Structure formats: structure tokens, C-alpha cells
């Protein structure tokens, strides 16, 4: 009886939080699913049910294919750069710096993550500027010709990857530092007595024991990469603030279909596709790390 009362009290205690979560998170997802099955626009009162017609149209939409390809390249590019770099930086800060200096390095690395997104993107837009940017000035010392970072389709995607990686790195390093501080010191001492070097201990001890941290950081990084918008919008916009067309991403495509073309149902179908992609990739990451953990 007492156990039942405790369970009931716990359920009642978390009920307000669950209700807020359902209203702010679950209801928009369900509503988006509903909108994707309708020909829903802002101007017309008639919003007929059309089933999967929006998804069928997506299959032949060239702009959607371009946005999906760019978003996928950016998301995985940021993931590939952020995970190993954050792990190495966290290891260097944890093992190679003094306690007083580590606080400075942690703050300096984490600072880009809390800087406002638009000013940071504007600063990087100046760095990537083809005529006045310091990046091309630096490359000129090595005999490399100036590059049109924000006008060439390939280089503009690389520019967005660099900016997103710079912003995501601080958070990933901070999470990895928490992981390194929780690792048992006795294992490293035993490995040192057995003749293992620092890199060997890092490869055979740290990386396997940090798999849960890697899973969490990779999922968060990949999800944020697929939701990239402001970075691509600011970097690719012209001097008057009009959005450019060099870096077309899924969120930008959804916003244009919703508020410029008034095709809310079609944009909702894009959001559903994005949700499914992120969900499938997250499940794959969980399954891969679980299998490696068993092995």
C-alpha cells in the first residue's frame, strides 16, 4: 500500500512537467503530421485532405533535393570535425594543463557556444570575405589564390561547416571534460605500469570508456547540424540582407515554402521528412554503440 502511494505521488509530481512537455513538444509534432496530409495554405479557407501527395511531390522537387543534400553534408561534416577534435582537446585540457589554467581554456573554448548566433555569423562572414577577409590574406602567404568562400557552391557549404563546428566544439569539449573527470585513475596507473604510453592509454582506455559521452555528443551534434539555418542564411545573404542561394538547407526551404509561397502543408511534409531522418540516424547511432559495447 505504501509503495502504491509513493508511485501515485511520483506520478502526480511529474504530471505538470509531462503536460508542459506534451503541449510544447508533442502537440507541434502531431500538428505537423496532420498539416503534411493537407493542401494547407495561408490564404485559402479550403484546406482539403490530400494524403501523401505532398510527399510524392517532394520526390521530384529539385530544390528539396538540393537542400537535403546540403543539410546532410553540413550535419555529417560538423559531426566528423567536432567529435575527434573535442575529445582530443578535452584530453589535453584534463591531462596537460594545471588546474588554474584549465579554467581559462575551458572558458575560451566554450565561449563560441554562448555567443549570439547572428553576430558570430557576421564576424565569420567578414573572415570569409573574398576581398577583405583575413582568411584569404592568410592563404596568400602560402601562395594560394583568393577563394570565393561565400559565392562558390562547394566552398560556401564548407564555410557553413567551419562556422557550425566552431560553435559546437565548446559544448562538446565541456561534456567530454566531465567524462574524463569521471574515469578511474587506477586503470591508467595500471596501464602505465604495464608500459602503455599516453596515446595508447587514450586509444584503448579513454575512447572505449567514453562511448556513452560520444553517443550523447554525436546525437546532439547531428540533430543541431540537420537543423542548421541562421548560419547558412547569414553567410549566404547579400549586402542588403536578402538571402542567397549558395547554401540552401532544409529549414530555409521550409520557411520559404511556408511564408513566401504560402504552402504550409508542403513545408510540413518537409519537416516530417527531417524528423524521420534525425530519428533514424539517432536509432542507428544507439544500435552501433550498443553493439560495440557488447563486443
Automatic annotation (TrEMBL):
It is a multi-pass membrane protein. Gene3D superfamilies: MetI-like. The chain crosses the membrane at residues 7-27, 73-95, 107-127, 155-178, 264-289. GO terms for cellular component: plasma membrane. Residues 68-285 form the ABC transmembrane type-1 domain. InterPro entries: ABC_transporter_permease (IPR051393), MetI-like (IPR000515), MetI-like_sf (IPR035906). CDD domains: TM_PBP2 (cd06261). SUPFAM superfamilies: MetI-like (SSF161098). The keyword Repeat does not apply. It is found in: Cell membrane. Keywords: Cell membrane, Membrane, Transmembrane, Transmembrane helix, Transport. GO terms for biological process: transmembrane transport. Belongs to the binding-protein-dependent transport system permease family. This is Lactose transport system permease protein LacF. It comes from Devosia equisanguinis. The gene is lacF_15.
